[in-house]
Design goal:
about 140 residues, alpha+beta, Alpha-Beta Plaits, 3 helices, about 30% helix
């Protein structure tokens, strides 16, 4: 069965556009076909100080994987593209790539590994602007 997974992507280290495009390529190879992508927008870091601006985008992926399988794959892709640490307890860092699962069909999950829909979509314009663009 096919599912609609909406993801948010961000990068503020290295060649940001190339990193996001490579993440999208790897997502298409390992999760499912990319049906739609937003434009890329540049934003200031939120929740921490950095001289590096973020480049952000969103994509719609059609997948047969479960939400937890998608999470495992995206975390592996982040590591492949140079992400060394995940943000924890509201402590954020510069990162070459960040991939967030935002929505998966109408599924609601809240466990130790994953919360869907993503709990802070509306609070973060770097997520909500690209997401709204592809939801239309």
């Amino acid at each position: 069965m096919e599912h609609h997974l909406y993801i948010g992507l961000g990068s503020n280290l290295g060649n940001r556009e190339n990193l996001i495009r490579e993440a999208l390529r790897l997502i298409e190879l390992n999760i499912g076909s990319i049906a739609k992508t937003s434009r890329f927008i540049e934003t200031k870091p939120l929740g921490f100080q950095s001289e590096h601006l973020f480049l952000n985008a969103a994509a719609l992926v059609v997948t047969t994987l479960t939400p937890h399988q998608c999470l495992a794959v995206t975390q592996h892709i982040e590591r492949m593209l140079g992400r060394k640490q995940k943000s924890k307890n509201g402590v954020y860092h510069d990162r070459p790539i960040d991939i967030d699962l935002l929505l998966y069909d109408d599924v609601h999950i809240n466990d130790n590994e994953l919360t869907l829909p993503h709990p802070r979509i509306e609070e973060r314009e770097f997520v909500s602007i690209p997401l709204k663009e592809i939801l239309q």
